[in-house]
Amino acid sequence: MSEIAREIASQPACWRRAAEIGGREVATLPAPGTRAAAVGCGTSWFIAQAYAALRGSLGRGETDAFTASEAPLDRPYPTVVAISRSGTTTEVERYLQRVQGPRRVAIVGVEGTPVAGAADEVVPLAFADERSVVQTRFATSALAFLRASLGQDLGTAIADAERALGLPLPVEAAAIDHFVFLGVGWSIGLANEAALKLREAAQAWTESYPAMEYRHGPISVAGPRSLVWALGEVDDGVLDAAAATGATVVGGELDPMAELIVIQRMAVALAEARGLNPDRPRHLTRSVVLS
Known about the structure:
The chain is α/β, with parallel strands linked by helices and about 290 residues long. It has ten helices and nine strands.
């Protein structure tokens, strides 16, 4: 069994631990009603997007999400939250070193790292760190922690995650050439992450969009060898339009984080069908460290 397969299977247990920590660490994160920013790179950026959308939708405060290399240094945020599995990502470290004014919180998989050292407060999630280059459980555990910190009960999500590990894949991955992931609100970040997983692990042609945007051009390339996957409550009209192209339409029944587990499993299955090692995708390393 690959490392990534083992890490995918461990997610329900990791989410329980992360949710417990989230319930205790509320004061570490941005105070309700205040502005905040969340930053990261790659997968961590997409988790930042999900957190920002969710925090805003729950009325906890205006929240922006940025990739660390493009995050503004002069906006008046009381708190910024940086996410980095390795704690060594150069762009995240540099952002925390350069930003002036806000309280800096880092969520990391490894303590004693440069990102942790550049923060004022650190939330270590070492139990969710990974050996595979491709992120799965750290990202979802970070989001479970953040959801719990916002007062969300993760019971249904964890139960759905356990189901997701045993569900049959909805299609034969090798029969699909084109994967599209659609989200709504906070699940847009997860749709972006889903597309990245197939791209990283299996070198697949993937796209991701806010669901209502899909009909504004991207649907033009859909066809019988396309898969359109909904994360969250996507409008039926969008899914009907996708189905009319001949594409296979699936998803939307589980908590979006649990839906992502099924997608992670599909990424592994497609990689293996293509003779690829999903733990060691080409051109990628565990962390991007710049000179």
